[in-house]
Amino acid sequence: MKILKDSFDLPRFYKSIYGGSLLMIDYDGTLAPLINERMQAYPYVGVKERLCALMALKNVRLVIVSGRSMSILETLIDMPAGLEMWGSHGMERKLANGKVISAEIPLVLREGLDKGLNFFRENVDPKLYDIKPFSVSLHWRSVSPKERMQLNEFKKSFEEITANYEIEIHDFDGGFELRPKNRGKGNVVNTLLSEMPKETAAAFLGDDFTDEEAFITLGDRGLKVLIREEIRETNADIYLTPPSELLSFLDLWISKSQIHLE
């Protein structure tokens, strides 16, 4: 573990977990490795057992926050009923009772996304793009550096779409995505914090650029944890390498929560 902000009082924060906590965790790159075969990105060994232990604690609210569609996220993480999840960067929400809530997308916005999808269909290998309920993403992790540069140039082709529709291009580790403006993990963090008492110990764990939205929104209201193989510029408070330090962090959270219950 590496502390990135000396001003953050980590021991004091850990003590605050006793009184109840909100633990928000990204999926790809955080709980599961980033691999070329995206549909085989299953959780690291030991992750599911720890998530189950966290779910069993009444003073812990565990929420998975992912850019994946809800249907794909559920398939990959394969957890027991009762786990709260947000998919599609916050545009899909599954409550602990199993109810799924999806955002309403205006027809004009759907038109813009369809234009982006049509471009991909005409110019990109189908294996390299994902069609999601509320976005379209291009993945280049499996191709050569030269091909990555060529695919990155496609961003210029979407200038008309981003100029005339409420759509933005968002980079991530291994590609970019077309998705609605002002929809992201930051919105999820705001919603979840509003549902919890102010004194709740909150944390967000993530690896990618899209998780920076959550870090910025969380601000000084909680602990921001960057989890990835190599450190980068970030708004996080601490840095962990997966999977060993991730598992140790989850174990610590479980331990601190159980002390309160004893």
Q: If you had to describe this structure to a student in words, what would you say it looks like?
A:
By secondary structure, the chain is α/β, with parallel strands linked by helices. It has two domains: 2-91 and 184-258, 3-Layer(aba) Sandwich (Rossmann fold); 107-180, Alpha-Beta Plaits (2-Layer Sandwich). It contains nine helices and 13 strands. The protein has helices at residues 10-16, 47-55, 70-77, 107-123, 145-152, 159-164, 185-194, 209-218, 244-261; strands at 2-3, 21-25, 60-65, 84-87, 92-94, 100-102, 129-131, 136-139, 167-172, 175-180, 201-206, 222-227, 238-240. Helix 8 (209-218) links the parallel strand 11 and strand 12. Helix 2 (47-55) packs parallel to helix 9 (244-261) and helix 7 runs parallel beside helix 8 (209-218). The radius of gyration is 19 Å and the shape is globular. The chain starts with a strand and ends with a helix.
Number of domains: 2
> What pattern of helices and strands is seen along the backbone?
EHEHEHEEEHEEHHEEHEHEEH
The proportion of residues in beta strands is: 15-25%
In CATH, the homologous superfamily of the largest domain goes by the name HAD superfamily/HAD-like
Q: How would you classify the quaternary structure? A: single chain
What's the mean pLDDT score?
Answer: 94
Using the coordinates above, name the CATH class of the largest domain: Alpha Beta
Helix content: 25-40%
> How are the strands ordered across the major sheet?
1-13-12-11-2-3-4-5-6
What radius of gyration results from the CA coordinates?
A: 19 Å
Major sheet attributes: 9 strands, mixed
Question: How many helices does DSSP assign?
Answer: 9
Number of strands: 13
